[in-house]
Amino acid sequence: MSSVKMSTNIFWQDCPIGKLDRQKLLNQKGCVVWITGLSGSGKSTLACTLGRELHSRGKLSYILDGDNLRHGLNKDLGFKVEDRAENIRRVGEVAKLFSDAGLICIASLISPYRRDRESCRALLPDASFIEVFMNIPLEVCEARDAKGLYKLARAGKIKGFTGIDDPYEPPQNCEIQIELKDGVCPSPSDMAGQVVSYLEENGFLHE
Ligand SMILES: Nc1ncnc2c1ncn2[C@@H]1O[C@H](COP(=O)(O)OS(=O)(=O)O)[C@@H](OP(=O)(O)O)[C@H]1O
Ligand SMILES: Nc1ncnc2c1ncn2[C@@H]1O[C@H](COP(=O)(O)OP(=O)(O)O)[C@@H](O)[C@H]1O
């Protein structure tokens, strides 16, 4: 947790134009699509494919990718339990702002601990936190090893790597699950299609 002291004597400032006005302008409903899963499970691939699909339908989205945010907003954080918790907390707060702006905010982070994800869910209005679980087996993620990190973790050169020597707690009640079918991973466009269908069926693609 941050060592900065809590502010005191602060008041909430209401503004005349609110979320409903912005949603009307955009003809969509603000929400957070929170993609969680192991490194290499396809979180960024899904986020980018979904962002492109929404864009082609005239829907405004923005991607918050764990790796990218660690180059800026979260560059002071590592991978200890408390650092990951602070990472998820900050991204949850930023996602809440994007959602309030009326955007479909796509957050893709390992977010391995259930408690941290549930805290983010609790920040969002009812039903507007949509948890997508990349239920891709470790063996598949490790075989991909796009960044060579699993190899380093197996060799003991990275400590506390999720799935190797740090836990991943799968969601118990996620809205969407991406999984293998007959041992094959759905294509990026099928994964994105699954999320678009959910957004459509639940009224997020109209105000
Ligand atoms: N120890 C350890 N464990 C897991 N991942 C590690 C670690 N060290 C570096 N990386 C790289 O950091 C990316 C994950 O960052 P996140 O912000 O999504 O992680 S977390 O949600 O705070 O757990 C992750 O990116 P993805 O592969 O896109 O998931 C890795 O590239
Ligand atoms: N649906 C998929 N089918 C096949 N390969 C995939 C799929 N999704 C992702 N990949 C590949 O797996 C690797 C890791 O994907 P990535 O999106 O970077 O995962 P993450 O963001 O979870 O670390 C990349 O090489 C990517 O091309």
UniProtKB/TrEMBL annotation:
<protein>
    <recommendedName>
        <fullName>Adenylyl-sulfate kinase</fullName>
        <ecNumber>2.7.1.25</ecNumber>
    </recommendedName>
</protein>
<keyword id="KW-0198">Cysteine biosynthesis</keyword>
<dbReference type="GO" id="GO:0070814">
    <property type="term" value="P:hydrogen sulfide biosynthetic process"/>
</dbReference>
<keyword id="KW-0028">Amino-acid biosynthesis</keyword>
<dbReference type="GO" id="GO:0005737">
    <property type="term" value="C:cytoplasm"/>
</dbReference>
<dbReference type="GO" id="GO:0004020">
    <property type="term" value="F:adenylylsulfate kinase activity"/>
</dbReference>
<keyword id="KW-0808">Transferase</keyword>
<dbReference type="GO" id="GO:0000103">
    <property type="term" value="P:sulfate assimilation"/>
</dbReference>
<dbReference type="GO" id="GO:0005524">
    <property type="term" value="F:ATP binding"/>
</dbReference>
<comment type="pathway">
    <text>Sulfur metabolism; hydrogen sulfide biosynthesis; sulfite from sulfate: step 2/3.</text>
</comment>
<feature type="domain" description="APS kinase">
    <location>
        <begin position="29"/>
        <end position="178"/>
    </location>
</feature>
<comment type="similarity">
    <text>Belongs to the APS kinase family.</text>
</comment>
<dbReference type="InterPro" id="IPR059117">
    <property type="entry name" value="APS_kinase_dom"/>
</dbReference>
<dbReference type="InterPro" id="IPR002891">
    <property type="entry name" value="APS"/>
</dbReference>
<keyword id="KW-0067">ATP-binding</keyword>
<dbReference type="GO" id="GO:0019344">
    <property type="term" value="P:cysteine biosynthetic process"/>
</dbReference>
<comment type="function">
    <text>Catalyzes the synthesis of activated sulfate.</text>
</comment>
<dbReference type="InterPro" id="IPR027417">
    <property type="entry name" value="P-loop_NTPase"/>
</dbReference>
<keyword id="KW-0418">Kinase</keyword>
<keyword id="KW-0547">Nucleotide-binding</keyword>
<dbReference type="Pfam" id="PF01583">
    <property type="entry name" value="APS_kinase"/>
</dbReference>
